[in-house]
Each structure stands twice: as C-alpha cells, then as structure tokens.
Amino acid sequence: MIVHIETGGTTEARARRSFASRVVERLNGGLVRVFLVLVGLFWLVPTIGLLISSLRTPEDMSASGWWKVFAEPSRLTFDSYRRLLENDDITGSLVNTALITIPATILVVVVGSLAGYAFAWMEFPGRDWWFLGVVGLLVVPVQVALLPIAELFGSIGLFGSVLGVILFHVGFGLPFAVFLLRNFFAEIPRELLEAARLDGAGELRLFARVVMPLGGPAIASLGIFQFLWVWNDMLVALVFTDADSQPITVALQTQVRQFGNNIDVLAPGAFISMVIPLAVFFAFQRQFVSGVMAGAVK
Fold first, then answer.
1. How far apart are CA 161 and CA 39, in angstroms?
2. CB-side neighbour CA atoms (13 Å) of 259
3. 242: phi then psi, degrees, rounded to nearest 5
4. 53: number of CA atoms within 13 Å, CB side?
5. Looking at residue 126, what DSSP letter applies?
6. Which of 89, 144, 25 has the alpha carbon at shortest distance from 258?
C-alpha cells in the first residue's frame, strides 16, 4: 500500500513537472518568435526606408525624412521609377547585369558540381594534390589579380566586354564551388553509389541521377551565393567593363557622379537592383527546401 502511494505521488509529481515544463517551453518558444520577428523588422527598416524614399519627390526628400510619409501617404509617386526606366543607360545596364550574372552562376554551378564529384568519388593521378591546389586558390584575393588579368584580357581582346567579366567571375567562383561541393558529395554513402554502379549506371548517369538530386541543398546554396556575389559586384565591373558593358552597380555610380548626390536617381535604382536578387533568393530558397527533402538519406 505504501509503495502504491509513493508511486502515485511520484507519477503525480512527474505529471506536474511535465505540465510545468510544457508551459515554460511554450513561453520560451513564444518569446523567441517575438524576438526573431522584432529582429527581422529592425533588419528591414533600411529596406523599407529605401522603398519609401524611392516613391517620394526630390522636394519631399529634401524637406523631411522618409518616415514623414505616413502622415501624408497621398504624396507617394512612381515618377522617379518612370524617369529612371526611361534612361537608356539604366535599362541597358540591367540587361548587362543579367547577361553577366546568369552565365557566371550557371557555369560555376555546373563546372563546380562536375569537379566536386570527380574529386570526391573518382580516382585519378594526383587527385589530392590537385584538390589542395584548388583550396589554395581560395586565399588569392581578387584585388591581386585585377591588373594581371586586365592586361591578359587586353592582349586577347576581352577587356571591356561582358565575356571578360563572366570569365573573371567564373575563375574566382570555381575554387569555392569545388571546395563546397566536393565536401558535400563526399558525405554521400558509398553503398548508395555502389548500388547504382551494380545496376549498370555509368559515371555521368550516376552523377545526374544520384549525386545531383542528393546535392540539391549544397547546389542551391552555391547558386544563391554566386548569384548575389556577381549581381552586387562593383569592383570587377569598374575595372573590366566600358560604357557599353557596364552593369547596374556601375551605371548607378556613374549617374550619381554626373548629376551629384541625387537621391531621386539613387533610391529607385538601388531598390530595383536589390529587389531582383531578393526575388531570386526566395525562388532558390524553395528549391533549397525541396532539395533537403529529396536529399534526405535514412
């Protein structure tokens, strides 16, 4: 009887502790969510301010801060966007940015995936030494290579062209791509690859049907990093492009230099150049989640 009472008391105490722990966990979870929402809103304040500033007239921006728009929302206008998109330099630079960013991203992802698979699962002479050489290229700063490669491109007729900028970004994006994907592909279970080989799959088929689906998360992450890096680049574009091949970053800098610190040009142009990679990021994020689900190994 005594044992029964003690057991019941222990069970009741555990139930009480379990209920209390559940309440604490829910409160903690709610506090964490509120904190993360506040951090996210605080992080978005500059973006919201840029968007509102791009919808105001130059006179309003000179007279007051962007937060004053909440008192008179009717004064918002799209005239700045209309004038900006009527500027041939801006529209042409947007096209150049796409012509540079898309091929540079695709080439880095494709070549980096193939090289990462080769370094992870294929045997060839000097494989480890070649991989160490690729890793060593990660420490080479972009600034060191600007002048030598500019002279090389000038001698072969690529300086000032879109192709030259693409090749530069591909060359400096591949070491990180190979390093990232090789380490990710190396974690794939060997039994899975051996089973595919026993079914008669060659290396290319094995890469396309097994490795690529499992490498979805890493490939999506690499695509996001490379796209954002190339799209937002200004240093390489300043050195290797001319007036006909300059991207949006250089075009905006040129507009500001020509007409002064005119926020009516800078604000809408900066927001346009920002919202496109933001949309691409969210699109790749969906692919990232689906890649995680498809690449899960039980």
1. 42
2. 10
3. -120, -165
4. 23
5. T
6. 89
* Structure-block tokens of residue 261: 């610190």
**Angle (nearest 5°) at CA 251 between 245 and 254:** 120
Residue 106 CA to residue 90 CA, distance in Å, equals 24
Instruction: Tell me how far apart the alpha carbons of residues 107 and 100 are, in angstroms, rounded to a whole number.
Output: 11
**Which pLDDT score, from 0 to 100, does residue 145 have?**
87
Q: What's the full length of the chain, in residues?
A: 298
Residue 58 structure tokens? 């130059």
DSSP-assigned letter for residue 215: T
d(CA 168, CA 172): 6
Structure token pair of residue 139:
């420490």
Tokens of 95: 């096209």
Amino acid at 101: T
Task: For the chain, count helices (H), then strands (E).
Answer: 14, 0
Residue 159: which region, alpha, beta or left (left: phi > 0; alpha: psi -120 to 50)?
A: beta
DSSP H helical ranges for 199-262: 203-206, 212-214, 216-231, 235-240, 248-259
Calpha distance 40→44 (Å, rounded): 6
Give the separation between CA 265 and CA 267, rounded to whole angstroms: 6
Q: Please tell me the number of Cα atoms within 13 Å of 74 on its side-chain side.
A: 0
3-class DSSP state of 241:
strand
Quick: pLDDT tens for 17-63.
565 566 556 656 667 788 878 887 888 888 888 888 888 877 777 77
Handedness of CA 230, 257, 65, 56 (dihedral sign): negative
Kindly report the pTM of this predicted structure: 0.77
pLDDT at 15 over 80: no
The residues, ordered by sequence, that sit 6+ positions from 79 with a Cβ below 8 Å of its Cβ are 57
Question: Which three-class secondary structure state does DSSP give residue 160?
Answer: strand
